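Q: Sequence in, structure out?
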Amino acid sequence: MKYTSVFVLLVLALSLSGCSTWRSTTKYVKKSWETTKDYIDPPPQIDTDSYQFSNPNQEKLARLFTPVDGPLTSLGRFVNSTDTIPDVDWMDLLLARFPWAHRVLVTDDEGNIIFMQPEVPVKKIENPLVFEAVWRDITLLTVVDYSDLGPELYIGRPYFKDVEFRGLIAVGFDPRTLLGLSPSPEELIIIHPGGGVWSRGADVDEESLLALPWEDILRKEVEGQVEVGDKHYTWLVRYIGDSSYVYATESVDPTASKKSWWFF
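A: Exactly. Output:
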């Protein structure tokens, strides 16, 4: 019993005498680990200064078209997310998420409209909507209906039952409504090569813009600057399926560097 007590006191004494050593060792290890951790797992830092436009024309266009192109791209993904006949809930969700869409329609395999929402749209379809494609190779296609009340852009895709083509789903909207999402709608235009120029009050020579050889231009470039009369326009093309639509705005400085810095 006596030896046991001595042993306990001895252990306790050693423990007490080692406390300062343990604390200093712990502090050293912690400091060493924090230094090493910076190399292994460095804290994230974002250098915002390195992501800036050197071209004021591109900066202006990006500011104007990004709030427009984002929702349009989201709509394309939403429409492309289904390959079976949609139900009413799907159409209600689409119109709720994209309130600028005017209508949703579904056809059979011969192009007859099975149902449409809303049943009586504001703008009637002026011309037959012709979607031509090999549907096994292409999903999204677009058709523009130029009515007396303005253009109506339709994004369409096929739906199937098993592996058989059964019809089309199409969503229509006025692209000028979509331009309203831009912070300065009157400064942004959308050029539909071979079709029309869509704007919200921009002062543009539509005929001259459409007369540009867009087919040749887009075969070589995806962005650039064009000259129409005494004005220069900075542009960027975006595709919905195989269809091209060109965002453009009047250039801030036509002589600015042509070096591209698009991250889209």
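Residues 1-19 have pLDDT under 50 and may be disordered.
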